[in-house]
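I had to read the description of the data format several times before I understood it. Each protein is reduced to its one-letter sequence and a matching series of backbone shape codes. The format is easy to grasp once an entry is in front of the reader. For illustration, here is how one protein appears when written out as sequence plus structure tokens:
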Amino acid sequence: MARRTKLATFALLDATEVVELIALAGFDTVILDAEHGPLGLPQLAQLVVAARSRDLPALVRVASNDAQAIGAALDLGADGVLVPQIASLADAERAVAAARFAPAGHRGANPFVRAAGFAGSPEWFANANKSTEVHLMIEGEAGLDALDAILATSRCDGIFVGPVDLSHALGVPGELDHPTVVEAAAGIIAAAQAAGVSAGVFATEIEAARRWAARGADMVALGTDTHWTLRGFQTAVTAFTRT
């Protein structure tokens, strides 16, 4: 592959050591999950610091498309946000505007936060607008219908396929490899590529991740910290009981 797909994973656990282990394992990005994990702002703050200490880029999947949640995650020093359940162009524009300072958006402005190095530099605002990533999750039929408009006008940095919710929306709950889900996800990735927008996707298995990379995904989020921890323990128990 001429282009290298970034490998990410989701972190649901409130453990700075897990974030460090993700970095040491060689992942390119960690996605701190405030939608499905028990992570509030105090926990996210510590996990972002842990990621920074290991030079690991960190995105925060916020719990919802909420301007305060998006701004707070970015103030903590996250490199960007992953916003779930984008179902319309209005949803997309709302998420992007919440992550950008005026005049590009309406993110609350405070240059004395971690993201700004606590320094109060007025130059930071323009730099943050350029460097902060906003990835939008397409997870349902409404999002699929609005995809072309989102890609054309929302100014997002990336589109991310949420195949678990998508499988429910398409009538095959939990069947991530179902042809209907795969076709829809592949269509999202192709549309993002055509628009020059980064495309990401979640995969639970390594072979699926490889297939999405071959199809042009710029980022594949492979499993979760809970998923890999359980598998590691299961592998150890299985190996022991077979001896």
Residues 179-195 form the longest helix (17 residues).
